[in-house]
Design a protein that fits this description.
Helices cover about 75% and strands about 5% of the residues. By secondary structure, it is mainly alpha-helical. It has seven helices and two strands, in the order H-H-H-E-E-H-H-H-H. The termini are far apart. It has helices at about 5-20, 25-30, 35-50, 65-85, 90-100, 105-120, 125-135, and strands spanning about 50-55, 60. It binds manganese (II) ion. Manganese (II) ion binds near residues 77, 98, 99 and 102.
């Protein structure tokens, strides 16, 4: 199992490869607001643990396991954003709140949150009912 910090890197690498087709150390450093030397260190660790293959001049590719995990991490992030948006959390708080909680929930909790999001997405009436309560409580 990757640590929370490893998860952040795998998630960003997966997103960069999805967006651009490749993930450069400088882009990873920029997206995670860390020094490039920290990225190099972590990338070597992720290579050792077989989440990716790092070749100094050819760049970096995720292994099938790294890809599978990256996909789940991106899904988890997006699901949590959806959930917070649904329950009425302010847009300006959503990204940082998700970054703060995503590593600390079990996959069991993620699956059940998935049910909750589905419950609301199935019927706009349920969302409206929740909004009535939100309005009452934010008066
Ligand atoms: Mn995230």
């Amino acid at each position: 199992m990757p640590t929370p910090s490893m998860e952040d890197y795998i998630e960003q690498i997966y997103l960069l490869i999805e967006e651009k087709g490749y993930a450069r150390v400088s882009d990873i450093a920029g997206n995670l607001s860390v020094h490039p030397s920290s990225v190099t260190k972590m990338v070597q660790k992720l290579d050792q643990e077989e989440y990716l293959v790092y070749e100094k001049y050819r760049g970096l590719i995720l292994t099938p396991n790294g890809k599978k995990i990256g996909k789940r991490l991106v899904y988890r992030h997006e699901l949590l954003e959806k959930m917070l948006r649904l329950i009425g959390v302010k847009e300006e708080n959503i990204y940082h709140d998700v970054e703060g909680i995503e590593h600390h929930l079990s996959w069991n909790a993620i699956d059940r949150i998935g049910d909750l999001v589905e419950y609301f997405e199935e019927s706009p009436k349920r969302v409206e009912e929740l909004e009535v309560i939100q309005k009452k409580n934010t008066k």
